[in-house]
Specification:
- This protein is α/β, with parallel strands linked by helices.
- Helix content is about 50%, strand content about 5%.
- The chain has helices spanning about 15-25, 45-50, 65-70, 85-95, 110-125, 135-145, 155-165, 185-215, 220-230, 235-245, 270-280, 285-295, 300-305, 320-355, 360-365, 380-385, 400-420, 425-440, 445-455; strands at about 5-10, 30-35, 60, 75-80, 105, 130-135, 145-150, 180.
- Strands 3-2-1-4-5-6-7-8 form an eight-stranded mixed sheet, sandwiched between helices.
- Strand 1 (about 5-10), helix 1 (about 15-25) and strand 2 (about 30-35) form a beta-alpha-beta unit.
- Helix 8 packs antiparallel against helix 14 (about 320-355).
- The protein is globular, with a radius of gyration of 26 Å.
- The model has no long low-confidence stretch (mean pLDDT about 95).
Length: about 500
């Protein structure tokens, strides 16, 4: 074993422990430390060293000072702790122990604005900082995650050999890890990834609900549908695990999924993406609906009471189930495209706002392996941006335009069936509505602007005048000619 470690890992919960094991397996010596937190049992480092780390290239540290002393220069310290104040507290304890040129790495789900702030702070103190998204859960951390680093550019060469060694590999052998951009760019991209994950999961849930409530399929029958879908255009990690979940039986032999309470949790990244989309003026409607869907699911008691008194249609199906399932597959695929289109649009607006030089094709390639949203068509997204780096929306790419066009009639049939039968499908419907809005050259916002000018003198632009020139009308003949300033929030 080396006298000095290549990297330090702070935090030996699920992600930290498995990342450390992954690093050691790839030939790196790792110093490990776990914070003492009130209410959390002590001795975690010792148990790790006597358990999964026994006989391997790990150095256990019982203090931060010891951890830093075990590291070779320039020191690389990765923090896998709860986002928010715990990261700031840990940074303040670590900085006095480090030397100029050392690297601090936050691998948790921090808000990108916190990473922007921390990068500036750390760089001002002579150190380097990386805020990196790590996706793939426990299995990804152990066997190969998707890693999205951003922060101090000078830090990237110092961590690149380790990060790319432990990252997942795409089908072409490329590591699912590459530099994203300065300060908060890495955590922003991870936030968008998680938002798309919310959307994918909600869409899959709605397809499941349609099959269960309208078609009357059993869990086993739905398992077969998802299993088949995972061999076609919808091939993805989430479709695959959905097939597995639907086949899983409880101890009594019945499907476990039917016994799970229908209230979904969330850790906040989907909400962050939705809030940022409002700040930047980007219609992230599908991810927003997915967030609200989890909020509605949490209203379990209220929903149970409402179900007894609120009327709606009773789902009845009398058509060809095989044809309907083929339509549902196409509707799910088209809706997924909208979700990714909105996510990439958000990244483009953020890049302009925060002065990041994001490579959207490279980001799509990062997500091809290891991460939760890995799917077959990420190669198509990468190709779309390879063909046109300035592509404003992937729905305008010839490949995706053609695929959505082929799916459109099926998509509308599924949406109609869901509405007419009272099946709750917020994400699928908002995806179709976004598509229809995007393809509409003249929306009713002209009437909206007239209303705003009528009651608030907020002014409007005219189709027969240059953009940027604003007008006000005295609609009632008695409201005067004074107008409010024209502005957009």
């Amino acid at each position: 074993m080396k006298d000095k470690a290549d990297i330090g890992m702070i935090g030996l919960a699920v992600m930290g422990e498995n990342l450390a094991l992954n690093m050691e397996e790839k030939g790196f010596t790792v110093a490990v430390y776990n914070r003492t937190v009130p209410g959390v049992e002590e001795g975690i480092v010792a148990r790790f060293m006597d358990g999964p780390g026994k006989g391997k290239n790990f150095i256990g540290a019982e203090t931060l000072e010891a951890l830093v002393g075990f590291l070779s220069a320039p020191r690389r310290v990765m923090m896998m702790v709860k986002a928010g104040a715990p990261v700031d507290d840990l940074i303040e304890k670590l900085v006095p122990l480090l030397d100029k040129g050392d690297v601090l790495i936050d691998g948790g789900n921090s808000h990108f604005q916190d990473t922007v702030r921390r990068t500036k702070n750390i760089e001002s103190r002579g150190l380097l900082y990386i805020g990196t998204g790590v996706s793939g859960g426990e299995e990804g951390a152990r066997r190969g995650p998707s890693i999205m680093p951003g922060g101090s550019p000078a830090a990237w060469p110092l961590v690149k050999p380790i990060f790319q060694a432990i990252a997942a590999r795409a089908g072409d052998g490329a590591p699912c890890c590459e530099w994203v951009g300065e300060n908060g760019a890495g955590h922003f991209v991870k936030m968008v990834h998680n938002g798309i994950e919310y959307g994918d999961m909600q869409l899959i849930g709605e397809a499941y609900q349609i099959m269960k409530d309208l078609l009357g399929l059993s869990a086993r029958e739905m398992h077969e549908v998802f299993k088949a879908w995972n061999t076609g255009d919808l091939e993805s990690y989430l479709i695959g695990i959905t097939a597995n979940i639907l086949a899983f039986k409880d101890t009594d032999g019945n499907p476990l999924v039917d016994k799970i309470l229908d209230t979904a949790g969330q850790k906040g990244t989907g909400k962050w993406a939705s809030v940022v989309s409002l700040d930047l003026g980007v219609p992230l409607t599908l991810i927003g609906e997915a967030v609200y869907a989890r909020c509605l699911s949490a209203m379990k008691e209220e929903r149970v009471k409402a179900s007894a008194v609120l009327r709606g249609p009773r789902p009845v199906f009398s058509g060809d189930k095989t044809a309907f399932l083929a339509d549902l597959e196409k509707a799910l695929y088209a809706s997924k495209i909208v979700s990714y289109a909105q996510g990439f649009r958000l990244m483009k607006e953020a890049a302009a706002e925060f002065h990041w030089n994001l490579d959207y094709g490279a980001i799509a390639r990062l997500w091809r392996g290891g991460c939760i949203i890995r799917s077959k068509f990420l190669d198509n997204i990468a190709a779309a941006f390879g063909n046109d780096p300035g592509l404003p929306n992937i729905l305008l790419d010839p490949f995706f335009r053609a695929r959505v066009d082929r799916a459109q009639e099926a998509w509308r049939r599924i949406a109609s069936a869901a509405v007419m039968n009272g099946i709750w499908t917020p994400a699928l419907l908002t995806a179709l509505n976004f598509y229809d809005g995007l393809r509409t050259s003249r929306l009713p916002a002209n009437l909206l602007q007239a209303q705003r000018d009528y009651f608030g003198a907020h002014q409007y632009e005219r189709v027969d005048a240059p953009r940027g020139r604003f007008f006000h009308t005295n609609w009632t003949g008695s409201s005067g000619e004074t107008a409010s300033s024209a502005y957009n929030v």
